Amino acid sequence: MKKTILSSASVLALAVAGPAFAQSTSTVEQTGNGNAATVTQENANTSEIEQVGDNNTATVAQTNVGTTGNSVDIDQVATGTNTATVTQGAGSNGSFADVTQDGTSDGNNAVVNQFSAVGATAEVFQTDSTGGFVELNQGGGSGNAAVAIQGDTSVVGGTVLTGSGSNSIVSQGGDNNFALTAQGGVNQTSNLTQDGNSNGAQVFQGTISGQDSVSFVQQFGDGGDVAVEQNSNANDAFVIQLSGSDNEVFIDQGFFAGGDTNIAAAFQDGDDNLSAIEQNVLTAGGTNEASSTQVGNDNMSFITQEGTGNFADVAQFQDGNSSTVTQGGTGNSVTVTQGTP
User: Fold this and answer.
1) Which of the two residues, 33 and 21, has the higher pLDDT score?
2) Average pLDDT, the chain
């Protein structure tokens, strides 16, 4: 595999060069009800905000174009709702943004925008989140990392526990970027888009009782890697790779506790692509659906299903394609189409 998919839910900030402008530092600490903080900085800056209260709001804008080494750290604990917005301007190379939203609050909201960034890192952690929203935008740069964690992550990089009804949107433009979304609990939604070459994406959803989650990953360009891991029942995973070649997709559903009525679909165009879908490996399940569609030359598709009543569909067009489908259990069915219809 061309890019190693990271297994950890945390990403270290990338080493950056010294600032090209004067350095400013802002520290805000608030305790009480209805806290609100707004920080606007130019040059190469550091901003830290800590809020403990009922309803917290924090806004940080680091605006200077071409600045190197901006840093933002927001920690919010609330019984109500936390809201955080971070904007780091065009050319903010090596910038770092970290937002942590904790407490018993529901409906947390975090948005991080890093424009034309190179070597930037954006991280959002929403613990025990119900109805949370995360949006991470990194545009036009390269070598960026975006991490969105929703749920109890007491063991970072391990099992993601409780949480429900959260939504995550991650968008990256440029080459050699990496994105990770991890959501624990039920009824979660993840939407991840990457436009460029040699990008990597990983999505993790669900626990032993996690279900009814949806993951959508879309990549444009060459050499992209996608891994989607979902556990338990009634989860959907959709991966689309367009306008590229030498891309790889791996979807794993029901890998720990098994699962029923899961749906996995991968679509790829271009040359020499690889698609692998596994449902309920080593664990019983049923009525799952897996679909792999490949348009191009010398593609490979692998589908493995365990349990009863599963369905697999493979459609490969043009020449030099390969397909392997393995089903264990009873009442399963498979359809394979190779060559131009």
Assistant:
1) 33
2) 85
Q: What is the dihedral of CA 184, 185, 188, 194, to 10 degrees?
A: 20
Structure tokens at 308: 């009863």
Find out whether 70 and 44 touch, Cβ atoms under 8 Å.
Answer: yes
Say how far apart CA 129 and CA 82 lie, in whole Å: 11
Q: pLDDT tens digits for 71-126?
A: 999 999 988 899 999 999 877 788 999 999 987 778 899 999 998 778 999 999 98
The pTM for the full model equals 0.90
Q: Please give the full DSSP string across 167-219, using - where no structure is assigned.
A: EEEEEEEEES-EEEEEE-SBS-EEEEEEESSS-EEEEEE--TT-BS-EEEEEE
Query: Tell me: the pLDDT tens digits for 184-206?
Result: 778 889 999 999 999 999 998 87
Q: Is the dihedral of CA 107, 259, 178, 8 positive or negative?
A: positive
Instruction: Give kind and range of the element (H or E) at residue 295.
Output: strand 289-295
Q: What single-letter DSSP state applies at residue 128?
A: T
Q: Which amino acid is at 237?
A: A
What is the rounded distance in angstroms from the CA atom of residue 27 to the CA atom of residue 23?
Answer: 14
- Per the listing, tokens 């020449």 go with 319
Query: CB of 217 within 8 A of CB of 195?
Result: no
Sequence letter at residue 285:
G
Q: Determine the residue type at 337.
A: T
List C-alpha distances in Å: 165 to 81, 89, 132, 170, 303: 15, 31, 7, 17, 30
Closest CA to 265 of 280, 251, 279, 254: 251
